[in-house]
């Protein structure tokens, strides 16, 4: 399956919400939009008056059937782009965007999949869950997500409704004490024939991948997207 790809265009900010602290959800009306597949991302480019530009990637949280493209941005205190998106952007603003992008971290809507996400790494997985719900195939997905607290987990209600295994590292949830994602969390979710999508910080992605391999999941079926420091996205003058 080849994934769609879009070039540079503009998007009008149709909605701004802050459903959880230190983050923002942006709903974008993308002009001349190319429909995306769940798991793909957009690049947002900011340009200052002196011509200085900075661009960063953001996964799409909305399913292909949504008329708007939804991004969910975690605000990093010293972040160049995330602080602007979280603090400054308002409905009616125009943003320069490129997308959809990405042909590897993409769910086809047909193959059984295990989704493993940490923190804002759940965003592309939410697009997969929403798409599965839209096409009546939530049965294809197994989901495990991790965050410090439930209040810090993006899309916590939707993920819980979809049956996600929710792992909290700083607070207990039911009978599960606070602890990091472990093999016992993933073991019940692993099934033959799955493609596995892992997304989160570099540390989370490395640990989750290691746990999966230890559980016997072939490395060849594991697809990883890391939201680490953006060394490859240096600002340009
Ligand atoms: C394919 C892809 C999809 C992504 N999707 C999302 C998404 O859906 N939501 C989202 O919030 N982010 C996402 N990211 C991360 C995003 O692209 C930026 O890296 C992030 O918003 C930080 O940019 P910034 O300009 O605010 O910070 P920068 O100015 O680049 O960095 C500020 C400081 O934070 C550190 N840093 C940078 N990125 C991170 C990070 N992710 N975690 C911890 N520390 C970091 C830097 O080393 C630096 O010290 C994605 C990244 C990729 C590659």
UniProtKB/TrEMBL annotation:
Keyword Flavoprotein carried by entry: no
Pfam families: FAD_binding_6
Keywords: 2Fe-2S, Iron, Iron-sulfur, Metal-binding
InterPro entries reported for this sequence: Cbr1-like_FAD-bd_dom, FAD-bd_FR_type, FNR_nucleotide-bd, MRET, Riboflavin_synthase-like_b-brl
Gene3D superfamilies, A to Z: Nucleotide-binding domain of ferredoxin-NADP reductase (FNR) module, Translation factors
Domain FAD-binding FR-type as annotated: residue spans: 6-107
Cofactor(s) in the UniProt record: FAD
Example of a GO MF term: 2 iron, 2 sulfur cluster binding
Name of the protein: Oxidoreductase
Species whose genome carries this gene: Modestobacter muralis
């Amino acid at each position: 399956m080849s994934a769609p790809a879009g070039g540079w265009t503009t998007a009008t900010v149709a909605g701004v919400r802050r459903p959880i602290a230190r983050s923002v959800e942006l709903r974008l009306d993308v002009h001349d939009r190319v429909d995306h597949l769940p798991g793909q991302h957009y690049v947002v480019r900011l340009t200052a008056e002196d011509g200085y530009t900075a661009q960063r990637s953001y996964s799409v949280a909305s399913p292909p059937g949504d008329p708007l493209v939804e991004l969910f941005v975690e605000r990093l205190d010293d972040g160049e782009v995330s602080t602007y998106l979280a603090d400054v952007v308002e409905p009616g603003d125009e943003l320069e965007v490129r997308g959809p992008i990405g042909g590897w971290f993409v769910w086809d809507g047909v193959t059984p999949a295990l989704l493993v996400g940490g923190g804002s790494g759940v965003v592309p997985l939410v697009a997969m869950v929403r798409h599965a719900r839209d096409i009546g195939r939530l049965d294809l997905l197994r989901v495990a997500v991790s965050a410090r607290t439930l209040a810090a987990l993006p899309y916590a209600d939707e993920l819980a409704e979809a049956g996600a295994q929710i792992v909290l590292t700083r607070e207990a949830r039911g009978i599960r004490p606070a602890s990091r994602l472990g093999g016992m969390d993933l073991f019940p979710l692993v099934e033959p024939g799955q493609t596995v999508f892992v997304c989160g910080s570099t540390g989370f992605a490395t640990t989750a991948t290691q746990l999966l391999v230890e559980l016997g999941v072939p490395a060849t079926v594991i697809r990883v997207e890391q939201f680490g420091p953006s060394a490859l996205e240096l600002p340009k003058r």
